[in-house]
Amino acid sequence: MPVLENIKSLSRKELQNLMHDYGEPPFRAGQIHRCLYSDRCTDFQSMTTLSTSLRSRLSEEFVLPACSIEQRQNDRTGGEGGEATRKYLVQLHDGLAVETVLIPSPGRWTVCVSTQVGCPLQCAFCATGTMGFTRNLNAAEIVEQVLLVNDELAENSGKRQVTNVVFMGMGEPLLNLDQVIEAIDTLTCEQYRFHLSRHKITVSTVGLIPAIAKLADSGRNVKLALSLHSADQGKRETMIPSAADNRLPELAGALDYYGRITGTPVTLVYMLLEDINDSRDDALQLARFARRFLCKINLIDYNAIVNIKFKSTGNQRRDTFIQTLLDKGLQVTVRRSQGSSISAACGQLAIRNRPSSNQNA
Ligand code: SF4
């Protein structure tokens, strides 16, 4: 028996091509897309906006899988405003899984989505990098992480809705840029039941220069967060191997371009690591780098990862670091770590103990 194709692996453009091949009018592609991501149809027969014959043909040639939540864990330390950060193990269309995190804060429900199963970039501080790389997620699998968490919020309290999405989970989003852009388009489609403003979406990267320019030129105007962690080229390369091909002077140019094209300042994310990147000289180097374009700096704590030996900076060194940046006139925020007790904080996502037996890898 032939293996049927996953219809959700088709982009909007590919759906249009399919309808052309079927001899159907182009608007049918939009109808199918709406059935999948707004009406959330789970079988072809419930796509009642389509003709019976089209529904039958689709069901003969395609399957329509869905992601599902396989496991939930609440952060026992609680979160801001008393709500706990929650980590989900989400099963993908082919049985593989990724982690997704819900981060509550006053007036906000932020979902951190994964874009790859594992990651090929192997940053020294990151648990995901130790998993190796299996595959990119398709746009549907990225969108469904958000919709699943949103469903759960709505179930628990009729009013709550995801307010923000950050592409900061497992994987480097800019290595899967086409699917990330497709997912952004679906999540921001104003005609769909669930939709967000583009300004509520942040894409994070370790700094892949050509892809930063491509995202800027895409016109999506989402926020960009750069994991910098050091403004010294040599130090940065020891933490982020891909930095060797994306050097700081050219990176500053790409970030400047992004800010000018989108009109939004880039966020520089800097994880303070004791005796590695937390000296006054490190802060001065960061200030020199940050002055070259429109940005704000977000300092975060290191979250312990099994088998990776870094230490979080102490209070005194952190205060000196912050004051040095403030004295240089930079905008600095300090992000409190959330979700570290369940390995849901920055750099901690990795699948170690999967409960079910149906995983493929
Ligand atoms: S920090 Fe991001 S890019 Fe680096 S290994 Fe982890 S997931 Fe990949």
TrEMBL record:
The active site is at residues 99, 346. [4Fe-4S] cluster binds at residues 119, 123, 126. It is found in: Cytoplasm. GO terms for biological process: methylation. It catalyses: adenosine(37) in tRNA + 2 reduced [2Fe-2S]-[ferredoxin] + 2 S-adenosyl-L-methionine = 2-methyladenosine(37) in tRNA + 5'-deoxyadenosine + L-methionine + 2 oxidized [2Fe-2S]-[ferredoxin] + S-adenosyl-L-homocysteine; adenosine(2503) in 23S rRNA + 2 reduced [2Fe-2S]-[ferredoxin] + 2 S-adenosyl-L-methionine = 2-methyladenosine(2503) in 23S rRNA + 5'-deoxyadenosine + L-methionine + 2 oxidized [2Fe-2S]-[ferredoxin] + S-adenosyl-L-homocysteine. S-adenosyl-L-methionine binds at residues 171-172, 204, 227-229, 303. CDD domains: Radical_SAM (cd01335). Keywords: 4Fe-4S, Cytoplasm, Disulfide bond, Iron, Iron-sulfur, Metal-binding, Methyltransferase, rRNA processing, S-adenosyl-L-methionine, Transferase, tRNA processing. It comes from the Bacteria. It holds the Pfam family Radical_SAM. GO terms for molecular function: methyltransferase activity. Its main location: cytoplasm. Its EC number is 2.1.1.192. It is an enzyme of class 2 (transferase). Residues 105-341 form the Radical SAM core domain. The keyword 4Fe-4S applies. Its cofactor is [4Fe-4S] cluster. SUPFAM superfamilies: Radical SAM enzymes (SSF102114). Specifically methylates position 2 of adenine 2503 in 23S rRNA and position 2 of adenine 37 in tRNAs. Belongs to the radical SAM superfamily. RlmN family. Reaction proceeds by a ping-pong mechanism involving intermediate methylation of a conserved cysteine residue. This is Probable dual-specificity RNA methyltransferase RlmN. It comes from Prosthecochloris ethylica.
